[in-house]
Amino acid sequence: MLQPIALPVPGRFQLTAVELQVARLVANGLNAREIAGELGITVNTARCHVQHLLVKTGARNKAHFVTILFTQSNFAATAFAKMGWTPVTLRSLSLS
Predict the structure, then answer these.
(1) Does residue 48 surpass a pLDDT of 50?
(2) What are residue 42's phi and psi, to 5 degrees?
(3) What's the pTM value of the predicted model, to 2 decimals?
(4) What is the DSSP string of 28-87?
(5) Cα separation of 87 and 76, whole Å?
(6) Mean pLDDT, to the nearest integer, of 24-50?
(7) What is the pLDDT of residue 84?
(8) Is pLDDT larger for residue 92 or for residue 54?
(9) Is 61 within 8 Å of 44 (Cβ atoms)?
(10) How many whole angstroms separate alpha carbon 63 and alpha carbon 74?
């Protein structure tokens, strides 16, 4: 059974270890088929995991989900770092 992993903001999001993996893959731009291939699961299961992430975070779509991850709490700095992925912070991005 998957155990939820508490995120830095108490009471915010409770994501399982698999959902954290899926979140990392979504943030890297992978679609359901690619996520399924990476995790060795079916495409439908990958879609279900993505849908659960959207529901848990209140995101309207995957782009909104990634925005929430990078702007709510220290999720990007902590959870993604535990997964071995270091994201570029939003402050370092240039819009010019």
Answers:
(1) yes
(2) -75, 160
(3) 0.66
(4) TT--HHHHHHHHT--HHHHHHHHHHHHHHHT-SSHHHHHHHHHHSTTHHHHHHHHTT--P
(5) 7
(6) 94
(7) 59
(8) 54
(9) no
(10) 18
